[in-house]
Design brief:
Layout (H helix, E strand, L loop, with lengths): L5 E2 L1 H9 L4 E4 L3 H7 L6 E2 L19 H10 L8 E4 L5 H12 L5 E4 L3 H5 L27 E2 L1 H7 L6 E4 L3 H6 L6 E2 L16 H10 L10 E4 L5 H11 L5 E4 L2 H4 L10
Parallel strand pairs: 1-5, 2-3, 2-4, 4-5, 6-10, 7-8, 7-9, 9-10
Helix pairs in contact: 4-9
Organism: Natronocalculus amylovorans
InterPro entries: Rhodanese-like_dom (IPR001763), Rhodanese-like_dom_sf (IPR036873), Thiosulfate_sulfurtransferase (IPR051126), Thiosulphate_STrfase_CS (IPR001307)
Protein name: Sulfurtransferase
């Protein structure tokens, strides 16, 4: 991907001023309207890009549904998109991951969030004019990062694939995939910038958890509903990890054995 997966607050401000990017706010509509938003941003709430018909709450909505959401919001598929939220980028990351799966290759997150933005940049409460856009569906990449339950079952038997559980300690203790290493997604968040940590800091966290730092390491991420794993996915990809996959259904779809530990 030539477009950066993570853009600093200042980089987003510069690119937005130059009209080089399209901004998508994935917060709730009341937050977007009442609290304000980045100037020019359109609102596509998080629940809109999940499959409402699926029994598994982390399932992606489908390429046609996602393209329709962007079209109704006035987003052009050919122009770079930057998404943000006010939760360190975890909901925005889910949007970006969805876009990547469906073939949008110029997409990234505000590396921080709305709170970080408004420390030094203006906010807006006006809703921009939205004209429905046209365009065909992008071509998905030849290798999707999504793995199925059957694939997970097969990979668990292999020793060269590292499974990472991005949930909290109590969740992990209650039950996790056999052999999975716990890496709470928040451990990769910088509390000051509210965005992701630097490459060196991320490497230090990985080493602390005995997670290989070789960029070709096969990794499968999971959580409960494929939200937290999305943030970790983007951070790992942004520092050069090449073989990161996600278990979309996560533990909401898993029906195999789980390991338990003391919390």
């Amino acid at each position: 991907m030539s477009f950066p997966l993570r853009l600093s607050v200042d980089a987003v401000a510069d690119r937005a001023e130059a009209a080089e990017i399209q901004l998508v706010d994935v917060r709730e509509p009341w937050e977007y309207d009442a609290i304000g938003h980045l100037p020019g941003a359109v609102n596509i709430p998080f629940d809109r890009f999940r499959d409402a018909q699926s029994d598994e709450p982390g399932t992606l909505p489908g390429a046609a549904v996602f393209r329709s959401l962007l079209s109704e919001a006035g987003i052009f598929p050919e122009k770079p998109i930057v998404a943000y939220d006010d939760m360190h980028g975890v909901f925005a990351s889910r949007f970006v991951l969805t876009a990547i799966v469906y073939g949008y290759d110029s997409v990234g997150i505000l590396d921080g969030d709305f709170t970080a933005w408004k420390r030094s940049h203006p906010i807006d409460r006006d809703t921009p004019t939205k004209n429905k856009t046209e365009g065909s569906l992008p071509t998905p990449p030849p290798a999707s990062p999504i793995v199925s339950t059957d694939t997970v079952q097969s990979l668990l038997a292999e020793t060269d694939t590292t499974f990472i559980d991005t949930r909290e300690q109590d969740e992990y203790a209650d039950g996790h995939l056999p052999g999975a290493i716990r890496l709470d997604w928040m451990e990769l968040v910088d509390p000051d910038t509210r965005g992701g940590k630097s490459e060196q800091e991320i490497e230090s966290v990985l080493i602390k958890h005995a997670i290989p730092t070789e960029r070709s390491t096969p990794i499968v991420l999971y959580c409960n509903t494929a939200r937290r794993l999305s943030h970790t996915y983007l951070l790992l990809r942004s520092i050069g990890f090449e073989n990161v996959r996600i278990y979309e259904g996560s533990l909401a779809a898993w029906d195999g054995p789980l390991e338990q530990t003391s919390s």
